[in-house]
Amino acid sequence: MHPSFGVMRSNFFVCQMEETEKRARLPFSAPEVIAKLESISEEALDDSEGEVMAKEKLAIWHPEYANWMIEATPAAPYDGTLDGIVRVQDNMANRRKLLLSVLTDGQEVFTLPVFPRLGCESFTVEDVKPDPNGEVSKSMYIPDASIQPHPRFPTLTRNIRERRGEKVLISVPAFQDKNTASTMETQAKKILDNEGGNEILAQLGDNSIYMDAMAFGMGAGCLQVTFQSADVSQARLLYDQLAVLGPIMLAMTAASPIWKGILADIDARWNIISASVDDRPREERGPKESSENKVLPKSRYSTIDCYISESDMNREHFNDVAIPMDETSYEDLLSQGIDSRMARHVAHLFVRDPLVIFEDKLSVNNETQTDHMENLWSTNWNSVRFKPPPLTNPHGIQWRVEFRTMELGLTDFENAAFSSFMILLAQTIAAKKLDLYMPISKVDENMDRAHKRNAVENQKFYFRQCVDCHLRDEKLDSRPCVKEFTMDQIVNGDSTLGMKGLVGLVRDYVNERPGTKETLSRIELYLDFISLRASGKIPTTAEWLRQEVLSHEAYKFDSVVSEEICYDLLIKCKAIAEGQANDKLYGKLAPMVAESCLTGDALTWVHRGLPDESESNEPATKDMVGAGESESSNMFQSPLSPRSIQRLWDEGTEGSGEATESLGSVWGGNTGYFTSNCDLQSGHAARCAGFGQQCVCLGCTCAV
């Protein structure tokens, strides 16, 4: 069984765009917005006849740490078929539409990791000032009112600070320009005006951006993908392999070059979040361990510390970083029949204190409830997370792995491309039994390099040259397998070295699986995009943002992203997300990326090299089920052809009992493949005709 695509989580931040002042600020409106969105979902799902369609279109909305952040997940899980995977972008587009529909005048939403001027003076709409003597964060930059009112978030913030014994200290190297020194001097004066300023400056060093609150890290959004495995063994192996890919995908999706209104000399968010929740007191941070304290080498937000699979590929010498464990827990687990690798993983979690717990959960039956374990798991934030099935499990949820390192892109296209690539890569790893293992120390080194400015082009990363060579018995030092490679080599391959590349391996896997022409075209476009970015032919979002700031007419060569620059930058981001072509960001794919952002539910796709074949009106059959898949897992099992599906909608039966019954149930075994509101009007035809190629829509084909 292939790993299936359970959930894709993405974050939005709501922003008030003030045109007259040319200013963008953050409103404390997320709780109100989420309430409106939940009301829409409840009304849609009350219509039982339209439940399938509603779940396809809707999302589940969650509060996030900051009062301007909203997390969205699909209302129904995706499956692991190719046709199922490519529904991701449609769902993302619908999430964005729904969110925009409930905002007030002047408000917009963005899928960027962090608001560029977070922590600057007057960065919020509400006139609330930071209070360094307050009750929660004691920040000189972020007011406590910025934190979501749910009690978990302020409690986490306070407890991290109190356990640490001081405020968190986040230090990020500033991008150096000819006038940056004056910016650092202005920052230093503000720090000195606050208690403990001299000590902060001593720890900070020269030329670093200073941040002092959990909101700087947990106020940054991300793109997370959760995979469901066939069994615990597959999940453990996938956990290990995805951990190796964490730094690679962080660099590929880098989109965070601006912090506290200052251009940074890094491009990614991960280390900022790590520092923002670092609750270790000084003795736990080292340098020496004693009988009174145990040194914890990393923050509780970090890369993984050990591999957990029992596979022969997991050679023990790859676990080359010593990790602290709770020895009592380790021995207890071994005595209960847990193998040493899983026992080590769990015992390592128990060196951390719980950070927050609700009073009614203080005493629970640990034989029948997992609240305490979930509490510990949910505050050890690693690059991948191993997730057991819930005890109460009516939907048959299996062992899962959550991939957590990717950053958000500006468009639904980009976020869908990376989400789809990761599920296809996970399936390729499982199907081809790929071997990505390398020493944990090299994974950590890769994570540091992934943060560097324009790392995709300027850094090399440790990776296996022979991920598909299946040599299992030789030790690492007996063959030159784990070496430093460029991102282009890792992703696109190098024929002179016998490297297929991740994209090449995924293409081979896709070619062996069933899928409609529309589906295969869309996947190929995603792979083209990822290939171009890895090669450096199109920039990362971080590099594009940086160049937009540096080329702005109001930029003063001081690394400062002023209110005017920030406003203009976000206006450009909004236009790109809404379908404005941008050659600098997407190169030759710009027209197709723009088109995909314009067309809503029924996405229009053109792709160079797409065969101009007439679409068959024959119904899809169970012959399309791929190797290793059951009939019930196949996404395209409707007895109707794509053209017949379109006819149902055109005749006004959208959401009717007939259409719903024909198209199947989202959660059930006969999952249907369908579309709604396919735009066959003249505007759609004109856009497609402009490309002079066949136009393919999800669920139907329209020759233009």
Topology:
Blueprint: E1 4-18, E2 23-25, H1 30-46, H2 51-57, E3 59-63, E4 69-74, H3 82-85, H4 88-101, E5 107-110, H5 152-164, E6 170-173, H6 180-192, H7 197-204, E7 208-211, H8 214-218, E8 223-228, H9 232-252, E9 258-259, E10 262-263, H10 270-276, E11 301-302, H11 327-335, H12 340-349, H13 371-377, E12 381-382, E13 384-387, E14 400-403, H14 412-432, H15 440-450, H16 455-458, E15 460-464, E16 482-486, H17 487-492, H18 502-511, H19 517-535, H20 541-550, H21 563-577, H22 583-586, H23 590-598, E17 604-605, H24 642-650, H25 657-663, H26 682-689, E18 695-697, E19 700-702
Parallel strand pairs: 11-12
Antiparallel strand pairs: 1-2, 1-4, 1-5, 1-8, 3-4, 6-7, 8-14, 9-10, 13-14, 15-16, 17-18, 18-19
Helix pairs in contact: 4-14, 6-7, 9-15, 11-12, 14-18, 14-19
| Average of the residue pLDDT scores | 82
The tally of strands reads 19
Low-confidence stretches: 471-479, 600-704
What can be said about the biggest beta sheet? 8 strands, antiparallel
Rg over CA atoms, rounded to whole Å, is 25 Å
Number of H- or I-type helical stretches = 26
Percent strand: 5-15%
Tell the overall outline.
globular
Report the end-to-end length measured between terminal Cα atoms: 39 Å
Class by SSE composition: alpha+beta
Helix content: 25-40%
Seen as an oligomer or otherwise, the chain set is: single chain
Tell me briefly what this model is:
By secondary structure, the chain is of the alpha+beta class. Strands 1, 2, 3, 4, 5, 8, 13 and 14 form an eight-stranded antiparallel sheet that branches. Strands 17-18-19 form a three-stranded antiparallel sheet, with helices on both faces. It starts with a strand and ends with a strand.
